[in-house]
């Protein structure tokens, strides 16, 4: 750092995050320019009077945010801003003829538009006053909570209405749950390849996140147990029903093992079941196995319609007031109009009908993918909305994704899903529902061509 140094007097707990914010602000304000070298970690620790571990953790977080780049033997340098967001999807940034298979979306058609148009027209003819004029944040309208119970039953969840909360979807619910059970400096566990938004969300809240080893069913119990024994773990975030990147489906035996470990170590469970009733309920939900410590989250955006930004949370007994206050502090209340449409569709059977349509559509898309990519290995399931493609040979993720886009197809790289920075996962996620069928086929043919090639550059 030439003309700027962190201010020791501005450091506050957690010190590593405070240091990250100071350096981040300096980069964003131009006081630290691309290519400029940060001081050696030991030197900065001595100058600020903090531990080397604290500085190392701050540098690691800066790397996660793509603000700096560490070079072995040379040091840590400020990076130029990335041209696009560090998210797996690319929708709305695609040039002309590029097929976008990066966005995680259900298959949609004119039927979906028809049902939404009818719902809006119906509501416009008989719109309830409380839907228009309600301004007080609350647990939800009584009728909405009643229909929530019906929908949750389809997901394999039987919960009292006193434990159900309406919200605007899984992301909002995750934020409220994290703010309820964790404070800055606490640790949350997740699969080493998991939800792409979770690391950033934890970073904003000052929560540590650690990735757990996983197999074809999800996190490995022994890895979970050892992480808990290390101390400081408040919660584990899981997606046991196919929505996770690697398309894993957790067995009943594994779920019971995870619950037992969580109970033994007094760890909360955040269960993301965004697919809801799209996944056959052959295994018990985690919330049904451990209702006293599980925050269950589901929504309509994946199984029914992307624009229906509405969802439900099931809260552990005695924690409703705390969670509701967190929602109040962040988003005030669930959007009444969206909650009303969701409730009507549950009542009249439209939601269930669209789930059935989605299952058939995904089955058809998977058959297409299996035929075009028959020479290559990939993870899949008839009810999943994507496939996970491990890259063959010497392919690495970034060159593969770059070449794919150059040749006309966008896919999601594995990088945003990987929790542990030191772990390299060479794979891509391919959405089954984000493009029209003919474009979908064209995109898959391009991927098959690239997968058959040897990369020109492997490093």
Provide the low-confidence segments as ranges: none
Q: What general form does the structure show? A: globular
End-to-end Cα distance: 29 Å
DSSP helix fraction: 40-55%
Strand adjacency order, main sheet: 4-12-11-10-9-5-6
Radius of gyration: 23 Å
* Overall SS class: alpha/beta
Number of separate helices: 16
Beta percentage is: 5-15%
Mean pLDDT: 89
* Number of beta-strand segments: 16
User: What summary fits the major beta sheet?
Assistant: 7 strands, mixed
Describe the structure.
41% of the residues lie in helices and 14% in strands. The chain has 459 residues and is of the alpha/beta class. Helix 14 runs parallel beside helix 16.
Set down the secondary structure blueprint.
Blueprint: H1 15-28, H2 41-48, H3 52-64, E1 68-71, E2 75-78, E3 99-100, H4 110-125, H5 129-133, H6 142-154, E4 164-167, H7 170-181, E5 187-191, H8 198-205, E6 208-212, E7 214-215, E8 218-219, H9 221-229, E9 233-238, H10 252-264, E10 268-272, H11 286-289, E11 294-299, E12 311-314, H12 320-330, H13 336-348, H14 350-372, E13 386-390, H15 397-407, E14 409-410, E15 412-413, E16 427-431, H16 437-451
Parallel strand pairs: 3-14, 5-6, 5-9, 9-10, 10-11
Antiparallel strand pairs: 1-2, 4-12, 7-8, 11-12, 13-16, 15-16
